[in-house]
Q: What sequence folds into this?
């Protein structure tokens, strides 16, 4: 009985504090600002947040997630640079007006990673063919991961 | 920019076995400063000076615009202070304490106090002497928070709390911060929670402030770089190295001034960068303290 009550308490704390933003951070999931960036991007990609919509203020999201204001600020700055959100001083933050939902949100990130891989490959003295084959190898390794989340893909 | 909330300049204090050495520190309104130090590093002395409970030998202290300790009475109207050794009256109930504090502070918010009672799982009719350590800490926090002070000074607010209570307390501290005019200065051993909720971080060791920086830029600048050095190749001189560990061929460098150019700089000298690892605040704190202690043995 006591255990059930305790569980209910923990559950209610959880729901209460994730609030309207419904973001879940993990202590072992890498830098906090990066987790926030990724999850907000995903929200825009699946259309949970649409163009022009007001999103939580930096301070509000910080309070909801129990993370520092500066961490959320950094995440918002990164999303602004990526052209996904705009922050108007004194008014709040909004999803950029010209953003369409869809996997294109991740385009810029993809380009960044590919360029980084190409650059690293070159500095390691690999041939073009080698770099391409390494990419194919990486693709094989993530094959399983690509096919597991089918249900979530459908919900996209 | 925001107003300065706390300013310490060249603050020193001599004790027979401890010396607080010219502390300079600034905290602006609306920010959270996490103050980290080992036991006996000077955290509590600094906090007592901030509160006007101890007079500094030299240097100036301004809190909310008031010079301390001269104007401590005026300053304390707007400061909520909670420390580990805070004494409440054992024979009185929490409700009695709430009335007592409410009678002295006009900004006391009873509705908020009632909300905190539920959130912290406290019973107002219970006598203080019957409370556990964790409950006493939460009671002291409640009494400070419900006054809605502009500045919260908390000496190890979460020490001795269970994980659920700690989560509640941190959530409450962060919700205070939705009001831009309020500021938090807190000390902690728990680097994880400092990493989580503070905007600025200060490290203190052996009475000296060894770092004071924005948390994000601190986390960004410190890196562990794993290298592969070919035989008879010298280790390149990189900026900000505080520690060299590992082996001659496979050294692991800890730097406090990481720059992405380091990767190409190494490669130009035939040294391969195997990995660049980010560090937790705890790792940064320990590396910082150790490197300084090696330079200046006690």
A:
């Amino acid at each position: 009985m006591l255990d059930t009550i305790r569980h209910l308490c923990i559950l209610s704390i959880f729901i209460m504090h994730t609030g309207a933003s419904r973001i879940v951070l993990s202590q072992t999931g890498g830098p906090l600002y990066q987790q926030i960036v990724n999850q907000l991007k995903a929200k825009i990609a699946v259309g949970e947040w649409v163009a022009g919509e007001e999103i939580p203020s930096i301070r509000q999201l910080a309070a909801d997630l129990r993370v520092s204001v500066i961490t959320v600020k950094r995440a918002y700055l990164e999303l602004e640079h990526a052209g996904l959100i705009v922050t108007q001083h004194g008014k709040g933050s909004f999803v950029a007006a010209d953003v369409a939902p869809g996997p294109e949100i991740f385009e810029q990130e993809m380009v960044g990673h590919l360029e980084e891989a190409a650059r690293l490959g070159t500095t390691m003295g690999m041939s073009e063919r080698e770099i391409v084959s390494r990419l194919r190898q990486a693709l094989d390794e993530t094959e399983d991961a690509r096919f597991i989340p089918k249900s979530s893909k459908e919900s996209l | 920019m925001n107003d300065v909330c706390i300013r310490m300049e060249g603050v020193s204090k001599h004790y027979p076995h401890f010396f607080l050495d010219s502390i300079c520190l600034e905290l602006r309104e609306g920010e959270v400063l996490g103050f980290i130090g080992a036991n006996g590093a000077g955290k509590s002395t600094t906090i007592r000076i901030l509160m006007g409970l101890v007079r500094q030998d030299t240097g100036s202290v301004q809190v909310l615009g008031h010079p301390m300790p001269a104007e401590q009475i005026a300053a304390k109207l707007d400061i909520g202070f909670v420390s580990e050794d805070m004494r409440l009256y054992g024979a009185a109930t929490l409700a009695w304490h709430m009335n007592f504090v409410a009678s002295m502070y006009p900004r006391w918010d009873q509705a908020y106090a009632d909300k905190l009672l539920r959130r912290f799982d406290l019973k107002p009719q219970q006598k203080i002497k019957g409370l556990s350590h964790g409950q006493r800490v939460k009671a002291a926090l409640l009494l400070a928070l419900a006054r809605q002070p502009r500045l919260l000074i908390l000496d190890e607010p979460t020490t001795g709390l269970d994980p659920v209570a700690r989560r509640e307390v941190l959530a409450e501290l962060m919700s205070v911060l939705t009001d831009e005019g309020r500021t938090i200065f807190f000390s902690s051993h728990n680097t994880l929670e400092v990493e989580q909720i503070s905007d600025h971080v200060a490290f203190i060791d052996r009475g000296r402030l060894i770092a004071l920086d924005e948390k994000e830029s601190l986390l960004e600048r410190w890196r562990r770089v794993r290298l592969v050095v070919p035989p008879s190749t010298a280790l390149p001189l990189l900026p900000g190295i505080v520690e060299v560990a590992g082996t001659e061929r496979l050294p692991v460098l800890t730097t406090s001034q990481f720059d992405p150019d380091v990767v190409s700089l190494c490669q130009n000298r035939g040294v391969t960068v195997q990995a660049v690892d980010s560090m937790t605040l705890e790792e940064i704190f320990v590396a910082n303290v150790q490197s300084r202690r090696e330079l200046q043995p006690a």
Q: What stands out?
A: Confidence is low (pLDDT under 50) at residues 8-19, 150-156 of chain A.
